[in-house]
Amino acid sequence: MPVGTQGTMKGLLPDQLESLDCEIILGNTYHLGNRPEITEEGVKFKSPYDNSEIMLTPEKSIEIQNCIGADIIMQLDDVVQTTFQDYDRIKEATERTSRWLDRCLKAHKRPTEQSIFPIVQGLLNEKLRRWSARDHMKKNVNGFAIGGLSGGEAKDDFWPMVSLGTEVLPNNKPRYLMGVGLAVDLVVCVALGVDMFDCVFPTRTARFGCALINKGQLNLKQKLYETDLNPIDKDCSCSTCKNYTRAYLHCIVSVETVACHLISVHNIAFQMRLMRTMRAHIINGTFVKFLKEFMNEVFPDASYPNWVTNCLSSVGINLLEA
Asked: Residue 195, class by beta-carbon neighbours within 10 Å (0-12 exposed, 13-18 middle, 19+ buried)?
């Protein structure tokens, strides 16, 4: 899911998203900045618009989301930075998230039209995450989110928590990993059993002149693209790749705002195509073959990161095996 913070993508029109076959985006009810104060009642913070104080309770969060009318709405949760070490605070946040879920479900006025996804918390603590997931599974909901990750933790700490989430949460309901958008991470986490993702990465990196390809990123600001008449990706059918060269994008990337627009179109197309490709291979029973070919393209000398090989080994995939 591309992220449209206020219900719109930066630099893209709604009909362009439709032409990319993008059927769902993520919008944020509130961005909590300015040192929010978290209590059992909710989250108090300063409005980014007029600096007034706002108290966002679980009930108010659901009221707003009921009004917005999104198909999937999220509970209010207590989020702690993944590198945080205070066990008591992590435990408090995990248990409070479950209490807030109960309040969100009780306040929900449109349960037949909108699905609340509980958010599994627990940071990097296996016991707390397992408890959180199992407590959420007692609720009558249509899907689950795995939250509190991608906040600066090491990959070796990240993937076991994702794996734990997909191991415990039911297979017959969507499992949504929040805030993950790098291509390698998407592929690996799909192998672990994740169904949905969101991330600002494709549009944010476009604003810095970076275009996404299977092998990683092209920094179009670099001089080596000055005379490169190839499209960003010859296998991409997006409107940017059909009509513009790397050389042209290089010329405008630092001076024209339209460059952000053109690269954003490609980056979202890239991620949509990657996800559709994985879905097709899963249905056809060829996902492991696809995964190995993808990893060989990203790491052509087979210099796979240890976290990738360890993670995939945990689900029976050996990258070095023919």
From this structure: middle
